[in-house]
Write a structure and sequence with these properties.
The protein is mainly α. Helices cover about 95% and strands about 0% of the residues. Helix 1 crosses helix 2. It is elongated, with a radius of gyration of 18 Å. The mean pLDDT is about 95.
């Protein structure tokens, strides 16, 4: 079996188990992860804007 497929199956089973045993914990983790991704995206775009402004 392909290692990628095996890894994907393990992740899906883990998330499914987490969803059934602690749905509130999974929701909080997802919310925190999305918040961190949003913060990183805003920092990246701010840095790109500052870089472009410094070139002109």
């Amino acid at each position: 079996m392909n290692a990628k497929k095996l890894f994907l199956i393990v992740v899906v089973v883990f998330l499914g188990f987490w969803m059934f045993t602690d749905p509130n914990g999974l929701a909080q983790a997802a919310r925190a992860g999305v918040g961190q991704v949003w913060d990183l995206a805003t920092q990246l775009f701010s840095a790109v804007i500052d870089f472009i402004a410094a070139l002109t």
